[in-house]
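User:
Hi there, any thoughts?
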Amino acid sequence: MTAARPALMSFAMKPDRPLKRGWTTGACATAAAKSAYTALLTGTFEDPATIALPRGERVAFALARQEVTADSATAAIVKDAGDDPDVTHGALVEATVRKSDGGLRFRAGPGVGTVTKPGLPVGPGEPAINPVPRQMIAGAIAEVADRHGGSGDVEVEISIPGGEKLAEKTMNGRLGIVGGLSILGTTGIVVPYSCAAWIHSIYSGIDVARATGLTHIAGATGATSEAAVQRHYGLPEGALIDMGDFVGGMLKHLRKHPVPRVTIAGGVAKMTKLAQGMLDLHSGKGAVDRAALARVAGEVGASDEAVAAIAKANTTALAFRIAGTEGLALGDAIAAAAQREAGAVVAGADIGIDVLIFDRDSNLVGNSARQPHPDGPPRKRRRYSGS
């Protein structure tokens, strides 16, 4: 993965119409493997290939490519992610099936990654094919073996042409998955804009960090705050969790799978939302309460004029700039409140949390470790002039 913005998905504007569901890479790989094994046993591909999804639905996939040789068969399916802005939409998912000895074996072909770090659902050295897709493929292979008299002893190689390049847009590199994409999916169905892939990557990042012995991780809302918090603490790449807007999801996973120290980093607006009790920081889930922000400014010593101006500010960034003209520790107060909200989510777990707030220029403007002075900020203020 690049150090910049993730992600498993590129978040475009959601279409203003009913959204079409899609299929996971795991479902596509299963259908391709089933069709290829059918051809290996019978010489004829199943097209369309019908598979059972984990919840019992049966769905059919048309083949985009097929090839059979004396000792192998390959089938390929174009992944349709529906209306979800998934980076793998339109990718070709291929399965090559070869006869083997000793049961079902999986292999990572070109464009599919290999796991190199502990903490993921499959161990180091294994193809990055998650447990549910493996179960789906195993079920499809067994179904074909029963129908056509096969042994089920095969090697299944999954490939995604161009997958190594596509993987640069995902978090795979940070998670220690090298060489390509992961074969994912727990239901076989992609729900548009569900953000399930992003949440999954947050969980995986935490699990890998724990398994590799990291004791301090940082969840950031975006690329600017991520780079800033990494510099601030000198954190390794593996300690960085791209939580985006999902601070609640990250904290709830940490409550069950704690790390000794967790830093939450973000910009002024999103951290103010957290301070006001919001655990989903997306703009569509709620806005900053300017009146409440103005009250906090008053508590840390803002003049009446500044309090009124903050309450009427068009943006949270402007509110912070107004506070800055009086030398107020508003950012520290907001960071401390955000720390309390985050701490409440992980109550009972042995986790130390701190919150850092950065502006758009990566300047640290709030730190929960710096508590506001009880009598106002320690340095002399100048009154807000309205300029």
Remarks:
- The chain has two domains: 22-190, 214-367.
- Residues 214-367 form one domain.
- Residues 25-42 form the longest helix (18 residues).
